[in-house]
Protein 1
Amino acid sequence: MVTRNFCLFLISAPIASGSVDASVREQRLTSRHSVERALGSGACGSCAEEEGSEIVGVEERREGSLESCEREPRVMATLDVARSEIAFLVMYLNKAEARDKICRAIQYGSKFISAGEPGVAQQVDKTTSLARKVFRLAKTLNELNALLAPPPKATPLPIVLLGKAKNALVGTFLFLDQIVWAGRTGIYKDTERLNLISRISLFCWLAGTCCTTLVEVAEITRLGSTTKKVENELKKAQGSPSIEEMKLREQRKENLKKSRVRSLNLIKSGMDIVVAVGLLQLAPKTITPRVTGGLGFITSVISCYQLVPPPPVKAKEV
């Protein structure tokens, strides 16, 4: 009897004192249980409760450590996603063109809401229109650079001339628009001449947009004929895997991609023609301020979408 109590005391003493870690406690508890069985008597009620509480505590600590280990990677992954999204927005908003198109969407959205009636929406329309003119300072140089640049090889002469006419007209619109901005801010005082310059600039934008529409129609037609030729050559080369067939497939894929971009530009330029007619009030009964605002908002959203940078290309695994 004395020997059994002494053995139990030696095993249970470190567990009660808490001087060892969880793994050692578990080993001691197992040893204690084996000693009791060897001595031929079951543990008493208090010892059984003590043993059960110790094992439960060890298991709870293990589960808690596992949950914390699983939670940390999830939190880090969420933070990485948030950082990448914020970096993407910063990169997008750093473009002056993107900010201009966002302001344009606000401007024409306000015009759609106001429908030409005085109020807060009309005031937002006017102030945003004036603010946008600052984004277009010296933007005439972009059109001048495109006007002086040599055209791509194998481009038909009519398309080249339409493109150069578009650059000249849009460049003139941007230049005259700066004079309009000077008049709206009070730098230029001649109101009558300012109204005339404003209408001339809008007519230049209308003509330039018409040239853009014609260019897009011609380019889509060219891409369609080129794609048909590629498909015919691909049918002839089908069944014999070769580098030539792969090149034809890539060329067809590239042509289809360009055709989609051109089609979106065609839709946008067609709507912008209606917007220009609405701003000039050439058909006030048909093209109301609400129609002008709605179409202008749609073309602004399309422009914002076109300015979104493409996703990064993943490197192919070797």
Protein 2
Amino acid sequence: MTEAFGEEGEQGQVVLSDPHGHDEPAKFAFDIVFGLSVAQVQIYESVGKPALHKTFEGYNGTIFAYGQTGSGKSFTMTGAPGDLRGIIPRVNEELFSYIAEKQSSSTCRFLVMCSFFEIYNEIIFDLLNPVSDRSKLGGGLQIKEHPVMGIYVKDLTEIVAEDVTKVETLLENGNKSRAVSSTLMNSTSSRSHSIFTIKIHQKDEDDTSRNVFAKLNLVDLAGSERQKGTGATGQTLKEGANINKSLSAEAQWTANGKKVFIPYRNSKLTRVLQESLGGNSLCTMLATLSPAACNYEETMSTLRYANRAKAIKVSATKNEEASQ
């Protein structure tokens, strides 16, 4: 039902055909189109690696995966062991490889700090400092705004990471705490949006007056939900409603991106990603699609969303301080 034209990793086109034959095939052009057989390393080289390199240069960055349940968001971002590793573990590996190389050949020194949280039913939970009974947290962690720090999550745990193993442990423990439940679309459907943030502080021992700060947000969104398709009831249906609230707010961002007003406060997701979506950050969207004819409507929705997102312009600047 979907076809990717052009070689993988290069600018291409997606053609979506109506399985019922009612409408003409819809064509969408994107910066990069990957086919079904693309290797994880190709996606990383095209998306993850450039974002990480920009972070070392001092630019904030965000990579987020958007698409319906079961279309491959978590696989693309996290993946599985070995060659199936996704963007996040590959970023982790290259992060410390670069630092080791840089520190051995220069006087640059680095501090890496990580945070990991999820937004579940419009409540923010710290995945690096989980609690056994979430009901005791009430409204969860709160979003605050500081004149210098900007938007941040109050009391969110940040842990210094010295090596690859440390970050792997943080990710493993955090993912165990994520909200997951079964739907007809996916037996282990992520019911929350997760945001793993890597902050990098660089300082040159020979030039202590200059500091470079930057962060990279790696975001795995919950799947876009339709009750009919997922068979959701009760708590799972409530989860789906809140997922849609967040994603609908993001859809408004893509629709209104050329206007002055962006509805950041419509959901916790757009609020915490305010800087990423319309401020000082480079942002890459990965739209994941299902090739199944039964998912035609959801696939069309994802493609339209991604097509609107292309028009959004951000103004990212290098985060560098020079003291006297």
Protein 3
Amino acid sequence: MLSWLLPPRHNPLWQAPLAATYAEFTEGYLVETALFFGLVPLALAIVALFRRRLPVSGDGFWRILFVTALLLSFGPVLRLNLETVVNWMPYRLFMLLPGSFAFRAPARIGLTALLAGTLLALALVKQLMMRRPHWAWRPLLVAGSALLLVNMTVEFPWPVNQAAPPPAYDAIAADGGQGAVLDLPAGEMFQDRTSWAMAYQTWHNKPLVSGYLGRRP
């Protein structure tokens, strides 16, 4: 649950205040602990669930999608700060479906809730603007957008690396053959190398034997 309420641990603006809280978690993949999209947008999305006739096409669909994805993102057991709050969640029903274990991390479903929640939050803001046109919406939205931009700018300190491919890939790109490229080492133990292999593929444009590209060699 805290992944919805707390900024990611790598955000420099919040890293120090949240260090003690995040010390209790095992992080895994960063994207699986980064469902936070702001307390205000989250509150707006929740309020929007109880508003009638939002100015958005198919608002009923977005409400259902948001609630469903939000509940599923908590996994089979709802925990708060490692303490069990609810021992049975709807994700247990999802686990009964064949192939459901391939998802592995329930929090990934939260990305769908982020999409629906963002749309609901914006629809609610639009509704308020239509009903309260005399409010100072322009400075409020400009100030809010500026704060959001500052926060997003430092959200993830992605490392910067040399992107130029090694000379060997120039030769592969110039080869007119129809074969596929096998980059070694590869596999689960060499995920960083596999990521670079996929990046270099955009240079030589040949099919890959290894990697995660969604096509066969």
